[in-house]
Specification:
two-stranded antiparallel ribbon, 17% strand
């Protein structure tokens, strides 16, 4: 950890010099670009600012960190069965759900969402038929400021659990509006793949549950909260609201990614995880045939 702390602090600009036209740059020119990119399979990182945004309190995490990198590694835990207390997978198709909810008439077996449900398209994905929970980061804006929340769709009780680090009356109203896209679209696509659990098909009623008693953010740390909420659930550990330290989580996530990327560089390791691509045509045809018979 000391090596990482020394590395992350090397070349930092003074606070007054950090702001640039399109955001923040935290490093001197000679330290900003990494000598060799860190390869994380789902993203290649050549800018040291990427790590600092994870490390520093109050920095908003963009999609390359949240559902790009962090949720990819959470999926690997489930895919390889490492220390997971539940059967789960993750997905990152919020924009598609919003788009489809506006035009439900075009939902069909050729849709990309079918690929995700069947375990295709993203690296280390698992078919929803083989898991009990599907987790995904969801993005919304509060007063024109981006905010991440965590959605957990339980396939056992057909409930959508929402984990939110800003629980106010106004924010709850916004979140309720945002999750309507999932509530409307999920039953349609589950029916398209003939999904059932314990022999009971989804009847189209998905209840939304706002999870209470969660740690609440004071800065723009929502992405770290989302990752930690997901990690706690996956590991089967309760979230200790009183002892939750977002600074420690930030440092830990930044260190783990740095350590993993450095290990790959030092050992010439290349991940053999590959995207499974889209579902084959014969899979889609079989779904159509099943729909026609039902």
């Amino acid at each position: 950890m000391k090596e990482f702390r020394d590395w992350i602090c090397q070349g930092l600009l003074q606070s007054a010099l950090r702001k640039v036209a399109n955001g923040y740059n935290y490093y001197k020119v000679r330290n900003k670009t990494l000598p060799a990119p860190f390869e994380f399979n789902v993203v290649s990182v050549s800018d040291k600012n990427w790590f600092y945004h994870i490390f520093e309190i109050g920095c908003f995490l963009d999609s390359s960190v949240t559902h790009g990198c962090v949720f990819y590694y959470l999926r690997k835990i489930g895919f390889y069965g490492k220390s997971a207390a539940v059967r789960f997978t993750t997905t990152d198709v919020y924009a598609m759900f919003v788009s489809q909810s506006r035009n439900k008439s075009v939902c069909n077996v050729d849709d990309m969402l079918i690929d995700y449900i069947l375990g295709y398209k993203i690296i280390c994905a698992v078919p929803w038929s083989k898991v009990d929970h599907v987790m995904f980061p969801m993005h919304l804006e509060i007063n024109n400021v981006g905010h991440w929340i965590l959605g957990r769709f339980s396939l056992d009780d057909m409930k959508l659990y929402i984990y939110n680090s800003i629980r106010t009356e106004d924010c709850d109203v916004l979140v309720t509006e945002i999750v309507k896209a999932y509530v409307e679209i999920l039953p349609i696509f589950l029916a398209l793949v003939n999904f059932s659990r314990s022999g009971v098909a989804c009847n189209g009623n998905i209840e939304v549950v706002m999870v209470d008693n969660l740690p609440q953010q004071n800065n723009s740390d929502c992405g770290v909260y989302v990752a930690s909420f997901a990690e706690h659930f996956i590991s089967g550990h309760e979230i200790n609201k009183e002892k939750f330290d977002v600074t420690s989580f930030r440092e830990r996530y930044a260190y783990l990614l740095y350590d993993h990327g450095k290990m790959k560089q030092d050992n010439g390791y290349v991940s053999d995880d590959e995207s499974p691509g889209s579902a084959p045509d014969e899979v889609r045809i079989s779904l159509l045939n099943l729909r026609e018979k039902s």
